Amino acid sequence: MSPRHLLSHRTVNLLHTTILMAALLALLCVLGWFFAGVNGILFALFLSIIPLFVSIRLMPSLVLKMYKAEPLSADESPQLYSIIRALSARAGFSVMPRIYFINNKSALVFSVGEGKEGAIAVSAGLLHLLTLRELVGVIGHEMCHIRNKDTVVMSFADVASRLTSLLSFTGQLLLVINLPLLLLGGQTLPWIPLILMMVAPTLSGLL
Fold it and tell me: Across the chain, how many H-helices and E-strands are there?
């Protein structure tokens, strides 16, 4: 991959992450305004910092724990280490991505993190299924994700998806509360933010 193409790819990833972040922030600010005015917007601004922090700092380790991935040493798999060391040198990595092993018969491989925090997880099923040449291609593909910071976009998109799903569930609960209040002629919650909360996962999915 040429430096010019690499720069373009990273620029697109940065733009994609910025759009996701801006859209999520806008949604939270609108909801905050409807429920609590200016104070609601300030709370939304504070809340928007959490997904960014989680996606960059905590999500990689959470994903590895979710798949029960364990660190793999060079003594345990010298051939795999040799492959990743060689590919790291060719890709210009200052630090070789960490290697994790998933004791699962399914063919699994994924990358998380970026830079010095980058890591690649492979399963027992994948190692038994692929030839050496195929394994090199798959590992190289995952290293491209780390180098181009695709992992940052994917992590943030996953956090945004989970957050909007939570908003949708909360909106459904509030709707259940709102309908009896409407029928009884009591003070109801504003309908627009409730609708926005319920369609949040759809908007997130489109983005």
Answer: 7, 4
